[in-house]
Write a structure and sequence with these properties.
7-stranded antiparallel β-sheet; DUF1905; globular; 2 helices; Elongation Factor Tu (Ef-tu), domain 3; DUF1905 domain-containing protein; 18% helix; AF2212/PG0164-like_sf; alpha+beta
Length: 100
């Protein structure tokens, strides 16, 4: 499954001092991922993905956000720097499920 979407980068309030930055996947696609993966039993309910933003590609995990019903995707600092992104910016994101 591959999901392509635009999303605003946001900082996780609980780790604001560490600048943990994320984007949220769309609700409908998040529900589909949950159904496909059977609510993964990996750590924190994570699902392995391959991500592309601009010219940057990497493997990581997405995590369920119980409050919003969406998956959250961490955007590492190296990618934010390479793509010139900060919290509040909107990025075009491609997420592809792997290892499920």
């Amino acid at each position: 499954m591959k999901v392509v979407f635009d999303a605003e980068l946001w900082i996780w309030d609980a780790r604001r001092a560490d600048s943990w930055t994320f984007v949220s996947l769309p609700v409908e696609e998040s529900e589909e991922i949950h159904d496909l993966t059977g609510g993964s039993r990996r750590g924190f309910g994570s699902v392995r993905v391959r991500v592309t933003i601009g010219v940057s590609s990497w493997k990581t995990s997405i995590f369920p956000d119980k409050g919003s019903g969406r998956y959250a995707l961490p955007i590492k600092r190296a990618v934010r720097r390479a793509e010139g992104l900060d919290a509040g910016d909107v990025a075009s994101v491609t997420v592809e499920l792997v290892d499920f």
